[in-house]
Amino acid sequence: MVMEFKAFRGQHDGSVKESVGRVDDIGDNDVLIKLTHAGLCFTDVHHIELGNALGHEPTGNIVETGKDVRHLKVGDMVGYGYNHGSCDDCDECRLGNDTLCNDRKLYGQVDLDFGGFGEYAKLNERFVHKIPEGMAPEHAAPLQCAGATVFAPFLKHDIKPIHRVGVIGIGGLGHLALQVANKWGCSVGAFTTSENKVAEAKSFGAHDVIVTKRADGKSFVPEKEEEKFDFIFCSVSSQLSSPLGRLLDCLKARGTIIPLGVDFGKFETNRYFSLLARENKVVTASDHAREQGRGSLVATRYEHQKMLEFCARHDIKPAVEVLDLNEKNLNIAFERLQKNDVRYRFVLKHQE
Ligand SMILES: [Zn+2]
Ligand SMILES: [Zn+2]
C-alpha cells in the first residue's frame, strides 16, 4: 500500500516547493524511518531541476520493520547514505564495493519520491546505519554524505598517520576533512584564500594554514619538500583545472590530489608531464569520475559504518546551522548555500 506524506521537490524556476512524497509496501527486509533532521548538501542543488524529493543527509527513528529485519528495531536512531541498495550478488558487491554495483540505487536515480526533507523514508535494512550512542541527530545528519565523502578516501587510498594531508576549501566538506585528518594522526595543512579563516581552520584541526592569495604576491607553493603534501583534498572541484598546476607543485613525489565535490565540466590539465615526472595522481571521490575510470562514489556501507564509529569515538562534529524545516527556510538555505553563506552545514529540523 502506498503511503503519502509531506516532501519537498525542486521546481524549474530553481525554487523548492512543498509536495507529496511516497513510499510503497514495507518489504520483509525493509525499515520505515520517520525522519527528524536532514543536512543540505550541494548535490541537492544539482537535483533541483530533476523534481525528485530532495535531501540525502537524513537522520530519523525507525517506526516499522519488515518481518525479516534482524539488525535494527523500532525506535533506533538511524541514517542512510547516498546509495540505497545493490544486488548483493555481483563481484563488486562481494568485494564490498556496493557503490560500484551495476544495480546500485543512487539518490536522484531511484527512490525519487522520498528524501531527507520528506517525512518518511523506506530502505532495505542493509543500507541503514544506526547512529552511535551519544551522537546528536543534527550532527549525525551531515555525516551521511559530507562525512562519508571526506572519510572514505582515508581508507580507499590508505592514508597513514605519517602522511601530510592538505585540505583546500574550508566549507561543508573541508571543515570535516580537517577534523578527520587531524584525528587520523596526519600532519594537516589547510589552504584558504583569505586570512580571516586561519583561526577557524586551526580550530578544526589544521596544524598550519596556507593562504593562497598572498598580500605580497608571492607563490603559496611550499619551498621545502617536507612541507609538501602526500594528499590534497580539494573541496572546490569547479576550480580544479585552473589551479591544478600549482597544486601539483604542492605535492610530494607520488602525491595524490583527491577532488571531493561533483563537477560536470571537463577535467583538463596542461601539466601532464608533472603527473608523469613525479608520479603524481589525481583520483576522485565523486560519482562522475567513475565513468572516466577514476575514483568511486561517496562511501561503501563498510566505509560509512567505520566513518560513524570514528566520528563518534573522536567527537568529530560538523559545524551546523539548524533551521526548522518548512518551504520558506528550505528556500533560504538553498539560496544561502549557493552564495557560500553558511558556516558550515545547514541542517533542517523536521517539525513534530
Ligand atoms: Zn551530498
Ligand atoms: Zn552487485
From TrEMBL:
Residues 172-282 form the Alcohol dehydrogenase-like C-terminal domain. Keywords: Metal-binding, Oxidoreductase, Zinc. The keyword Acyltransferase does not apply. GO terms for molecular function: oxidoreductase activity, acting on the CH-OH group of donors, NAD or NADP as acceptor; zinc ion binding. InterPro entries: ADH-like_C, ADH-like_N, ADH_Zn_CS, CAD-like, GroES-like_sf, NAD(P)-bd_dom_sf. It comes from the Eukaryota. Residues 27-133 form the Alcohol dehydrogenase-like N-terminal domain. Pfam families: ADH_N, ADH_zinc_N. PROSITE patterns: ADH_ZINC. CDD domains: CAD1. Its cofactor is Zn(2+). Belongs to the zinc-containing alcohol dehydrogenase family. This is NADP-dependent alcohol dehydrogenase C 2. It comes from Wallemia ichthyophaga (strain EXF-994 / CBS 113033).
